[in-house]
Amino acid sequence: MSKITTELLLERAVPRSTRLRKIETLNLSKLQLKTGDLDPRLFSRLRHLQKLDLSDNLLDKFPNSLTLPDLRVLNCNNNKLEDVTALKQFPLLEELTYENNVYLTLNDDYKVMFLLENLRLLNGKDITKLANHVRRVNSRKLTSKVTAHWEKFFRDQLPEKHTAEQVKSIKKKFLKSVQTNVVYGPSSLSEFTRWRVKMIAEEFLSYSLGLELNSDTEPEEKMDENEEESTESPREAAEDVAQVTVTPSKRKRNHSKSGAGNKRSKSQANAEEEEEAEDVSAEPLHFLQCHSKGNSHEDFKTQLWSCVFEPVLDSGARKDPIVSSSKTVATCGGESVCLIDCETGTVLKKYKVATEEFFSVAWTTLTMVISDSRKKAHNILAAAGRRGIVKLIHVAADFCYGEIKAHKKPIATVCFSPTQETHLFTASYDKRIALWDIGIPDCDYNFKASQLLVLETVSIPLRIALVPTCPEQYLLAGCEGGCFAWNIKLDKGQKSRPFEAIFQFPDDESMTTSHRVDGLAFLNDDVVVSKSSKPGCIYLWSWSRSFDAKGKGCQRTVSAVILAELEWSTTDMSYLTLSTCPAKEYVFCGDEKGSVWMYNLSNYTTAWSSPKGKRSERRISPTQILKWPELRLNGEQLPEILVNNVVSDPAFSYLVVLTSVNITAIWKKS
């Protein structure tokens, strides 16, 4: 039942009224209203409403047919609005405020200025002059560019006597080309420009050339593929996902709340778990296929590489690892980056770059200036990959506000400093690790990035980790040719630096530095976990005791002080990386059969922390191995499944498993 009734409207009228048609001012603030509560049939009776206050509610959009023909003033502050285009239904609107709707950006300001010709005040500022420029000068220049683009590249492609198929084909190509190639104004307004260019191009085709835009125009999902970059709404992202349903022998079929779960395609995989009935510490929750190339449900080849949980926007809580993460995780692979709700399996957002293959993602929290010079914390996601470019995404606003051309070769991994929120490390195939200051964007998303440091490596860096006790002084890197350490302190004058130490590890009867290190993470302030090319083994070693040995002799080659070895798969397959959950003292690593090896090391860490802690003589067996369920596609078993990465949230409530077959598996701890 809707929260809004005739009685409520009469009571909240200012002053109170006895007839809906007599209400001119209405206050519906602080009612926890959602979009579905705005009943168009009821609102259509408010024929003379001029002022409406909907502030401090939960609205994510406006229904398209509220029918308020005389509305002049609208307050939507402190909601969750994602789009403003439905406001065009209020043509007489003069004053509009929608501050503290984090999903709205500068592009939305320009959209309402164009759509509402009578608008004078936007968020308390007089926009009359700017709005006139947007409606006239901006539109005139874009129209000129669109027309010129047609004349130069497309006019001669359309035969004098053309068929319907030829019209449809040329229309599709033109709309794709014009949105990609027609640019105008600052990059912070690129979304608005594309929106207007598409609108102008459609009008141009319809009226100037008589090419009517029929109802079978290509859907928006197709347009996303045509753009170099695109951001999808939660609904669009959900529709791109194939949800694999798991039916374990001990529990009922899992129904995801994701929209994709209800839109099962012929190619959707059905899964059955054929494990023996046994007590498990984690159970499969969702299996998602959300990184498909071109949104194809037939794509079981896209490799998924990196995932990281979003930090909670609470500066006080960020110090406590147990509460420093939400249940939202960012994943990357192929052309896309996805944000997933681990509990529901819903793909909340999806960001795509058609020419990219993303290898790594990382979060930071920036304190940004919003309207009225107020400051507010916002989570920013950095994503990088094959093109050597870092994309900076303000996720709440669905907006990629900038990029850093960091390297000329692919970027293998990125990470932010835990103490300097704007400091980003990028490790590249060009055998360099760079430290960047990404700056803080202003309210128009203008920002300035600068390179602070370059660390020279002798081989390709694969994994990087900052030393927890001194994250501003030392960085470790696992590389194709060994494990190295650098001094990264910025008060040193040298901007380009060689490594300070290379670590030796056991190799049969001797020690060696020459081995691929494709897994690297800290279990706690001192214990490093690394995985090398030696089959069947993961090493745990002491950072302080190993590095202190270098200080005494000042040699660059030092032996890692091994604390223990973890028993792992005997495969010689590389790039199956590991991760840790320091708060729970767990290590995770996937294998070549789709399984996840879990090690609870809480019984060992106390002994290792003593100054002369003894090495564990025997290899430590996994506490548990989570077996991959047998997934079948149209009755046939999926190909070989490699687990490229597995990550838990800080509280170890969820495990996110990334595979070589375009499937993200989410397990929940029992």
From TrEMBL:
Residue intervals of the Leucine-rich repeat and WD repeat-containing protein 1 LRR domain: 7-200
Superkingdom classification of source: Eukaryota
UniProt-listed Pfam families: LRR_LRWD1, WD_LRWD1
Bias kind Acidic residues: ranges: 215-231, 271-281
Region of interest called Disordered, as start-end residue ranges on this chain: 215-281
Subcellular location: Chromosome, Centromere, Kinetochore; Chromosome, Telomere; Cytoplasm, Cytoskeleton, Microtubule organizing center, Centrosome; Nucleus
Main location: nucleus
Positions of WD repeats: 404-438
Keywords: Centromere, Chromatin regulator, Chromosome, Cytoplasm, Cytoskeleton, DNA replication, Kinetochore, Leucine-rich repeat, Nucleus, Repeat, Telomere, WD repeat
GO biological process: chromatin organization; DNA replication; establishment of protein localization to chromatin
Gene Ontology terms, MF aspect: chromatin binding
PANTHER family noted in UniProt: LEUCINE-RICH REPEAT AND WD REPEAT-CONTAINING PROTEIN 1 (PTHR24370:SF10), OPTICIN (PTHR24370)
Record's protein name: Leucine-rich repeat and WD repeat-containing protein 1
The organism of origin for this protein: Furnarius figulus
Gene name per UniProt: Lrwd1
